[in-house]
Amino acid sequence: MVMTMIKIPKPSIERCCRMYSYLERLQEKGVEKVQSRELGQLLGVPDCTVRKDISFINKEKNIARSYNVQNLKVLIGGYFHFDKARNACVVGLGRIGTALLAYTNFEKYGFSIVAGFEDNINRLELIKTDVNLYPAYQIQDIVKREAIEIALVAVPADAAPGVIGVLVKAGVKEIVNFAPVVVAVPNDVIVKNVDFTQMMREVVAFKEMCVSEDNEG
Amino acid sequence: MVMTMIKIPKPSIERCCRMYSYLERLQEKGVEKVQSRELGQLLGVPDCTVRKDISFINKEKNIARSYNVQNLKVLIGGYFHFDKARNACVVGLGRIGTALLAYTNFEKYGFSIVAGFEDNINRLELIKTDVNLYPAYQIQDIVKREAIEIALVAVPADAAPGVIGVLVKAGVKEIVNFAPVVVAVPNDVIVKNVDFTQMMREVVAFKEMCVSEDNEG
DNA sequence: CTGTGTGAAAGTCTTCACAGCG
DNA sequence: CGCTGTGAAGACTTTCACACAG
Question: What residues of B are in contact with residue A85 (Cβ under 8 Å)?
Fold first, then answer.
C-alpha cells in the first residue's frame, strides 16, 4: 500500500542504496548510532543532503541527536523492499558469468542466484558450482518456475539483445547488463549497464576534466 | 594546450563517453553519418541534449545535415584524450580479477593490461595468461616501471583500502574499484566504484519506485 | 551547544524554440 | 524542408539557514 509516492530524486535513491550497504556494515560491527555527517562523508555529499534524502522517506519526525543504525536500515530497507529476498540468475557463463556465479556477497545481502544459463553445452559440463545450470533455451521455463526477478547478463555483445529480449518476454524486469551494448527495453524494465571499457573511459575523462568527486556509484 | 576549459556537466561527460563507444561501433560497421536523434535514442535523451553535449566540446560551427562519424569520434576522443593508449593493471586475481585479465575488449579500445598483482603466491602460479604477474608487494615498482595509469582493483573488501593506498602512493590516479567499500582518496584521484550488490539494489529500487529510464551507465 | 528536519534559495542540467545552413 | 547550434526557459537537485529537540 504505497500511497505517499512523493517524487524522490533519482540521485537520492542511489545514495539511499549506498547508505543501506553502509548501515549493514555498521550493524555487523555493532555500531548503534550514526550521524548525517558521517554518512555524508561516505557518500561525498554534505550532511544536509543526507538528511534531505532521509526526509523523503521518513514521514515521522522525531528529532533526535543522531540516527539509530538499526532503525534507519529498516526504514530504507522497508521503503525500497530490500528486506524481501529475491531470486536472480546469471546468463552467459564465460569468465564474468562464472565469477558472478561464485560471488558470495549476493547471498549475504538478500539475493539468491538460483540459475545459470549458457548456450554452449560443453562449457556447462565443465563449470563447478552449486547453482543449477541450464542450456539457454530453457530461460523462459526456469525464470517462471524459479520466480526469477533479476538477471545478470554476461553474454557477448552481439548475443545480448536476443538474450535480453527473451528475459523480458519471460517477465524479468530488472537486468544488470555486462555486455558492452545498450539494448532497448519496454519502459517498465530497468536495465543497468556495466561496461568495463566504458568505466575506464569515464575515469579517464573525469581525470582529464579534473572533475573530482569523492566517490561514485 | 587546453585553454577553453569551459565547465562541462558531469552527466554530459558520461554521455560523451558512451557516444564515443557507439561511434566506434558505427565506424567498424562502416557507417559514415549519424544524426543527433539516433545518438539520443541510444543514450535515452532527446536529440537537443546530444547536440548540446557536442557543443560543449565542439568550438567550430559548421552547421551541416548530420555528423560525420569519423570526425565526431576524433572530436570527442581528442577532447578527452581517448586517442592515447593507456596502461592499466589488475590488482587481486580472484575470479573477478582473472576475468578482467582475460577481458579482450580492453586492448581493442586503447587500454593495455600490462600487469596483474596478487598476494597469494600459490594462486599466481596457477593463472594462465599472457599478462605479467607479480606479487602484491611489487606494486610500487612495477607501476612506475610500466607507466601504469589505471588500476582495476578486485581484492576483498577489507584489503581494498590498503591496496588503494599503495596504488595512490605509487602515482595511480584513475581507479576502478570492484570491492564493495568506498575508499577515501586525495581529490586528484578518480575512483569509480563497481559494487555488484549495490547495482542489484539500485535496479530493484528504481523498479520499486517506477523510475524507468531508457538506459544508464 | 550539537544535531535533525525542512522550506526556500542557489545551483546544475535538460529541454525548448528558433535562427541559420544546406 | 530537415537537421544542427545555442541562448534562454524550465525542471530538477543540492545546499543554505534556521526552527526545533535533547
Answer: none
Contacts of B181 (CB under 8 A, 6+ apart): B157, B158, B160, B161
Residues in chain B: 217
Q: What percent of chain B has pLDDT over 70?
A: 94
* Amino acid whose CA is nearest the C1' of C4: A63
Say yes or no: Cβ of A49 under 7 A from any atom of strand C: no
Q: Answer whether B91's CB lies under 8 Å from B151's CB.
A: yes
pLDDT tens sequence across B45-100: 999 999 999 999 998 877 878 999 999 999 999 999 999 999 999 999 999 999 99
Strand C nucleotides in reach of protein CB atoms, 7 A cut-off:
2-7, 12-18, 20-22
Does residue A51 approach strand C to less than 7 Å at its CB? Answer: yes
B206 → chain A, closest CA residue: A190
The rounded distance, in Å, linking the Cα atoms of A96 and A152 is 10
Contacts for B124-128: CB closer than 8 Å, 24+ residues apart: B124/B93, B127/B93, B127/B98, B127/B101
Is A98 within 8 Å of A131 (Cβ atoms)? no
C-alpha cell at A50: 543526507
Q: How far is the CA of A23 from the CAs of A30, A54, A75, in angstroms? A: 10, 13, 11
Residues A171, A11, B206, CA angle at the centre, nearest 5°? 15
Mean pLDDT for A15-24 is 97
Question: What is the rounded distance in angstroms from the CA atom of residue B95 to the CA atom of residue B65?
Answer: 48
Alpha carbons B1 and B29: distance in angstroms, whole number? 33
Across chain A, where does the E strand assignment appear?
33-34, 67-68, 86-91, 111-118, 133-135, 150-153, 174-177, 190-193
State residue A211's pLDDT score.
62
In this model, does residue A43 exceed pLDDT 60?
Answer: yes
Query: Residue B109: CB partners within 8 Å, gap ≥ 6?
Result: A197, A201, B21, B24
Which grid coordinates belong to B183? Answer: 575508499
A40, pLDDT greater than 50 = yes
Average pLDDT of span A182-187: 91
B8 contacts A184? CB cut-off 8 A: no
Q: Which helix (H) or strand (E) holds B196?
A: helix B196-208
Tell whether the model's pLDDT for residue A213 goes beyond 70. no
User: Which pTM does this prediction carry?
Assistant: 0.93
Query: How many C-alpha atoms does A20 have within 13 Å on its Cβ side?
Result: 27
- B215: nearest Cα among A200, A217, A12, A177: A177
The residues, ordered by sequence, that sit 6+ positions from B159 with a Cβ below 8 Å of its Cβ are: B92, B119, B179
